[in-house]
Every structure is written in structure tokens, then in C-alpha cells.
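We examine the record.

___
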Amino acid sequence: MTSLFKSREFILAAILAVAVIAIGSYDPVFVRWQNISDLLTETSVLFMLALAQMVVILTRGIDLSVAANLALSGFVAALVSQYYPEVPLVLMIAAGVAVGLLLGMINGSLVALLGIPPIVVTLGTLAVYRGMIII
């Protein structure tokens, strides 16, 4: 039980709880259910990206191109929406997901097959993916 109170996770959770209580006592609107719901809705994309990045970090890698991958995937979904408005929403989302998977497979293939360090690959593909959005 003593090791629980000394763990890094417990200390971080306690600091977060104290911060929420302090902010909530200063401004009660902060701890209302609607505000918490809005906060969770707004951060859901960031949360999913963090979970994906966590998997990469657990395998001793790093992916610097996550945000560019997200932007290019969203861009492709938006292009499908703009040029093919009759396409169902599910297919637009599927197009964005497919692009994201393809970009991730490119990164993974460069790392696994060519043996290039993940930081070098993802830094390079970060620039390429951003450039593809601009073009």
C-alpha cells in the first residue's frame, strides 16, 4: 500500500485532483457536467492520437509525423466531401482512415524494412506529408 502512494501515477492523479478542486472552488462552472462533457469532446482527437503515439513509444520508437498524418488524412476526407458530395459520410471517413493507415504503413515499412531510425523517417515524412497538403 505504501508503494501505491509513492508511485508516479498516484502523485500525478493527486495533483490533478487538487487542481480540479482548486479551480472548481474558484469557478464552479468548471466542474459542471456540461463543461466536463465539452472538455472531453474537444480533446477526444488528441486523446486518440496520444494513445496511438503511446503504442509507438512502448516499442521504443517515436513518430514525429502524427499531426501531419492527421492533417493529410483529414484533408483527403475533405477533398472527397468537396468533389464528391453524393458519397456517403461513412465512405468519406473511410477514405481519411485509409490514407492514415497508408501513411503509417509507409513509415513502418521504412523503419522495419530499410532499418532507418524512426526519428529520421518520421521527421522526413512529416515534411513530405505537410508538403502534400500545400500542393
